[in-house]
Amino acid sequence: MTADSISPQLRPMHLVTYPEPAAPRLVTLATGTPVWLVTRYADVRRVLMDPRFDRSSLHAKDAPPLLVVPNILDNPDGLLNQDGAGHQQLRGTVQRAFTPRAIARWRPWVAAVVDALLDDLARQPQPADIVGEFTCPLPVSVICRLMGLDHLELARIRDWADHALSGGAHTADQVIAAMAEFGAFAGRLIGERRREPGDDLVSALVTAGDSLGIEDRHLVALVCGLVVAGHETTMTALGNIVVYLLTDGKAARTALAESEESAATAAEQLLRQVPLSEGRVLPGLLRRSVEDVEIGGVTIPAGSVVAVQTNSASRDPDVYPAGPPDVRAPLPVPGVIFGAGPHHCLGAWLARLELELGLHHLMVRFPLLRAEFTPDTIEWREGQLTRGPLRLPVSW
C-alpha cells in the first residue's frame, strides 16, 4: 500500500474512504520512506501523547525523506517541529491567547463577523457561491482581525496558504519562493510591531518573545504558522460541512438552528464525521520513535516514522457508533481531529467557536438554503493537504 496514492479530491465526498481501524502496519510514502500507519482511536491517542514519539527527530541528520515538495509543516523552526522545554516555551508565548476563557471573550465580535458576511451573502443574486461569500472569508477575517492584519487582501493570504500547504499543486521552487515572500512579510511585521506595538496577537507575541529571548526566526515561523493554521482547517471544515448539510446530512440542520449550545454539540459530531482531508498521510501527523515502543500489540522500532490517521480513528467502531453522526449527542470520548498531547492544535477552541456560530447563524438566517450543485458536480481544491470545495452555488 502506498499511503500517498489515494486521490479522493477528484471524487464526490460520499465516495471518500479511509483505512479501516486496525493494528499498526507498514505503508510507504511517495518518497519511498516506510512509515507505520496508526489508525485505531486508542493507538492514535497513545502516539500523539507519548513523548517517545516526537517531531524534532524527523529533522535529524539521519531522518529519511518525507516530502516530495516542501511545505510549512516541514519548517524546523516552526512550533510544530519543536519538542520538550523549547517547545513549551515557544508555545507559551501564544497559548494564553487561545484558552477557552480568552476565546469566550471573542464571541460577540466573531458573531458580528458572521452576521456581516451573511448580510453580504443575502444581497447576492441567486444562486450565490457560499464558499466565496462565507465559508472562506469567515475564518480569514477572524484570524486577520485577531492578528491586526485587516489590511491584507484575502487573495494574498489564500495564495500563501495554498503554497504553504501544497500537496503537489505547486513545484518545490514555487513553494520555496512563496514561503520566502511570506517569511519576509512576517519579518517586517514583527519589526513594525516591535517599534509600535498594538492591541493584537502579533504585538503580544513579539513582547513575550523578546522577554524570553526567542529568536526572530522562531517568531517568523510562528506568525506564518498562525496565519495559515488560523484559518485553513476552519475554512475546510466549514465548506465540507456545508456540503454535507445540503446533501446527505439535511437532518442535522434542525439541531444547528435550535441554539448556539445545540450547534456546538452538533459541530463536534460533524467535525468527527465529515472529512477534512483525503486519505493521504498528512505531514503534520507524522512522528518518529526515539526508542522501541509497543503500540496496539506491534513493536515499532526506534527511529521509525509513524503516521496517525485521525479520520480513521474518528470512525473507530470500538469507540463511536456506526452510521451518520448523532448531532444531538456529546462525543463519548475526546475527539482527535485537532490532535492530542503537547502538539494539540492551539486554535482548536477558536475553530470550534467559528463553526458553532457560523453554522448556527447560517441555518437560522437561511432555513430554506438549498444546493444548486450535486455531489458529482462539486469542483474540489486539488493538490492541497486539506480537501474542500472551490465553490458551492446555493439558493434560499
Your description of this structure?
Strands 1-2-8-5-3 form a 5-stranded mixed sheet, with helices on one face. A 3-stranded antiparallel sheet has the order 4-10-9. The protein has a two-stranded antiparallel sheet with strand order 6-7. It has helices at 41-49, 84-95, 100-105, 107-122, 130-135, 137-147, 154-164, 172-195, 201-212, 216-229, 232-246, 253-258, 260-273, 310-313, 348-365; strands at 25-28, 34-38, 53-54, 128-129, 286-289, 293-295, 298-300, 305-308, 370-371, 393-395. By secondary structure, it is α+β, with helices and mostly antiparallel strands.
Largest beta sheet, briefly? 5 strands, mixed
Average per-residue pLDDT, rounded, comes to 91
Helix content: 40-55%
Number of helices: 15
Distance between the termini: 44 Å
Total strand segments: 10
Structural class: alpha+beta
Condensed summary:
By secondary structure, the chain is α+β, with helices and mostly antiparallel strands. Helix content is 45%, strand content 8%. The model is unreliable at 1-14 (pLDDT under 50).
Features:
alpha+beta, globular, 396 residues, five-stranded mixed sheet, 10 strands
SSE layout and pairings?
Layout lengths: L24 E4 L5 E5 L2 H9 L3 E2 L29 H12 L4 H6 L1 H16 L5 E2 H6 L1 H11 L6 H11 L7 H24 L5 H12 L3 H14 L2 H15 L6 H6 L1 H14 L12 E4 L3 E3 L2 E3 L4 E4 L1 H4 L34 H18 L4 E2 L21 E3 L1
Parallel strand pairs: 2-8
Antiparallel strand pairs: 1-2, 3-5, 4-10, 5-8, 6-7, 9-10
Helix pairs in contact: 2-9, 4-6, 4-15, 7-8, 8-9, 8-10, 11-15, 13-15
